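Self-study notes.
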Amino acid sequence: MDEMGSIKWAVVAVVVPAVLFSVTSCSHSSHEPTEKYFLVASNTKIPYWQTASAGLSRAASEMKVQSEMVGPETYDPVAEHTEFQRVVAQKPAGILVSAADPTLATPDIDAALQQGIPVIAIDSDAPNSKRLFFVGTDNYNAGTLGGHLTSMLLRGKGNVVVFTKPGQPNTRARLDGYQTAFAERPDIKITQIVDMKGDPKIVSDTTKQLLDSKAKVDAFVCLEAISCPEVAEVVDRAGMGGKITIVGMDTDKSTIDWIQKGVISATVGQKPFTMAYYGAKLLDDLHHDSPSLLKGNWAQSVTSPIPMLVDTGTFIVDKESVASFLQQNKSVNRQ
């Protein structure tokens, strides 16, 4: 099997576990008109979270319940913390949360469960909280997938600059995965890890400084959605599009546009629609059928009736596959 074949197999392998956990929520006939499920996130206006919101709305429509995505429009863990507390005060049927700052989110999650409100983490986990389980990407696997792809694009040699938000468990796990993949190629080195702090200006300014200084950068890797379109813009203005490898994260429109233009080499896609859709169905199960599960220490139980992780899968979009991706996903944000 060639290297690209191995990468494609990795994409298939991480999708399977989510399929094994069946959805039964649609069978409920006892929904109340006031039943409501929330998704609490940070940076809610970016395309990633708008796609998740579409998944939440689809699930709510099928279940004939209410739903709402709330949270700050910028990356603001403190504002997300405040919004979560506001949601808990409304005593909703269940909460999905993407923890921008797990340390800050953990007491809030635990307090919600103590009040009988089921909480599931999606996208970014709070593993030390009492959240029931995590629905989202196996981020370490996503990182190894991206690392092997970057290694192949660099032909096993080069200097890599990484943009990330190191405070989040999901991006830390992705970086671990990249580092594991690069360890197999000693001629690939991460020369700089940049904390972009949720600010696209930090990304564009840093990229410009590196290019202006003639630093030897063979690849830019982005571990979250915002960075790579900014990198691509600066690289393109410098007339270096296609000369520097750029590997992104997620499939927002600007990233896909730059792939079509040949500036971003590829991106590792996640499934935020699936996270929110599936997470809402599971919350519904917990609210109606299994309220007793809220008090269990299932992480330490060999007879746990629920998983700790539901992996929604990852995939690669590059110039060869972008047309197929667009065709398959053209209606997602119209839901």
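Second protein, same conventions, sequence then structure:
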Amino acid sequence: MRRETVVAALLFVLGFSTVFVAFGASASAIGNLVRLHADALGKIAGVVIIVMGLHFLGVTRIGWLMRQKRLDVVKPVGLWGAYVMGLAFAFGWTPCIGPILAAILAVAASETTVARGAGLLAVYSLGLGIPFMLAAFAVEPFAAFIARFRRHLDKVEKIMGGLLVLTGIAFLTGFIGDASYWLLETFPVLGKIG
């Protein structure tokens, strides 16, 4: 039973990873087309990221980000159904993770290659997938942890909102580009990654 749970969790993670990596590749491909307007788009991305951060902080609540769609499945759909549910989860959960996803997609759009944009979203999917895999390995202790941690979710949301606002300001002021150049000059080996 535990093996089947782990395999189902892995297929579920692969399902939503498929969607998010495709988002990243698409953002990079589109980003290559609009590279001429990078400064203006960086400022727009900064504003959008700040608005998303303010949403997390509770300063501005964006209605469509608060909605969610649920898919009720009447009977088990098997292991491959877990993959399909992961695909559906990605599309259904996108409004919930919209602020973070929008920030990452803005960064992916600024990447020079489609592979780099897809790579960013692959890492994002890995980060989202780790809790699901941990939960599959330890269902009972994880459920108890989540029940205890739930009271801290508001604080986590506020911290994420603050970080998003800082990221948006960094985009608006051009600090992201300056920091990238500084990192590459200081640590040239970073230019060889990816």
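Instructor comment on the second fold: The chain is about 80% helix and 0% strand.
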